[in-house]
Amino acid sequence: MLSIALLLFFVIVGHKLLELGKHGDGVEYASVARNMAEGRGSLWKPNFSDTFGKLYREHLPLIYWIQAQLFKLFDSLGPKDPLTLKGRRRLSSMIFA
Questions:
Q1: Distance (Å, rounded) from C-alpha 84 to C-alpha 90?
Q2: CA angle, corner 62, sides to 73 and 85, nearest 5?
Q3: 77, containing H or E segment
Q4: Please, which residues have CB within 8 angstroms of residue 36's CB and are 6 or more apart in sequence?
């Protein structure tokens, strides 16, 4: 009975979960931009992590730099600031729409 339930779950929901997991690039881009905002790496030498390769040259560095500036802006205002919350909502709706 349990095997039938697991099979039904995978048929109904599981394939969607696998589809969503295919595109994990956003996490990598955000971590490169976050490292730039924290002072690890620069516009010309983007840094992904210390253990997984020092330089990250998958895309143009301007994209990471713009994201890093947004990280700095929203972090300087504070996490509970109304402008920060509104900006984060607006940006996430534009990026992930």
A1: 10
A2: 25
A3: helix 61-77
A4: 42, 43, 46, 47, 64, 65, 67, 68, 71
Single out the residue of 52, 12, 10 nearest to residue 35, CA to CA.
52
Q: Using the 8-state DSSP alphabet, how is residue 42 labeled?
A: -
CA 33, CA 42: separation in Å to the nearest integer? Answer: 9
CA angle 2, 7, 8 (to 5 degrees): 100
Q: How many CB atoms lie within 10 A of CB 72?
A: 14
Measure CA of the first residue to CA of the last residue in the chain; give whole Å: 39
Candidates 18, 6, 61; CA nearest to 36 is 61
pTM of the predicted protein model: 0.55
**Residues 62-85: pLDDT tens digits?**
888 888 888 887 777 777 778 778
